[in-house]
Amino acid sequence: MYTIDTARLKLVSCDSKMLSMLIEDSTRFESYYNLCLELNWTSFGMDPLNYSLTQLADPAQANWWTYLPVIKNGNSVIGTCGFKGKPNESNIVEIGYEVAPAFRRNAYGLEIAQALIREAFHKHHVSAVIAHTLAEENASTAILKHCGMKFIAAMEDPEDGLIWKWQLDRSI
């Protein structure tokens, strides 16, 4: 099981077996992996997990999709995070994250974003990391700014409407 460690969290990379069990039977998942899915651990539902599962059919996509942020003291899953696939032809990768409502305002989102950025830049040939947020100042925009990301553009998303694109280029 591949993990990215931070001070308070371990980001556990989901393989096909883990995702399948999480989607099909959360109680069995919790028992098998000795993890506790916190209340409202995901607000996005199972669709993104199902999509990640289809992408993991390609072995080159391993560790480039869904991670579960787990509090080290207690084994609680407090959200989802990860990359939206391996780097593209320009060596750019996108990150995303969510934290369950009961665990917000504790800097977990910042810790997750920093860990994903560090992972992308230090262990892979990534030239830039991007992220998208709702088109308004909010906790996510504050986190991305704190990570050094810069606002790039406002853009129209077919599902979410107007969104903002953020980017951090690899420093030399």
State the CATH class.
Alpha Beta
Oligomer: single chain
Order of helices and strands: EEHHEHEEEEHEHEE
Form type = globular
Number of strands: 10
Uncertain residue segments = none
Reported CATH architecture: 3-Layer(aba) Sandwich
Major sheet summary line: 10 strands, mixed
Q: Helical stretch count?
A: 5
What's the end-to-end separation, in Å? Answer: 31 Å
Tell me what portion of residues adopts beta-strand conformation: 25-35%
Number of separate domains: 1
The percent of residues in helical segments reads 25-40%
Mean pLDDT: 95
- Fill in the CATH topology: Aminopeptidase
Radius of gyration using CA atoms only: 15 Å
Describe the structure in your own words.
- The protein has 172 residues and is an alpha+beta fold.
- Helix content is 29%, strand content 32%.
- The protein has one domain: Gcn5-related N-acetyltransferase (GNAT) (Aminopeptidase, 3-Layer(aba) Sandwich).
- Strands 1, 2, 3, 4, 5, 6, 7, 8, 9 and 10 form a ten-stranded mixed sheet that branches.
- It is globular and about 45 Å long.
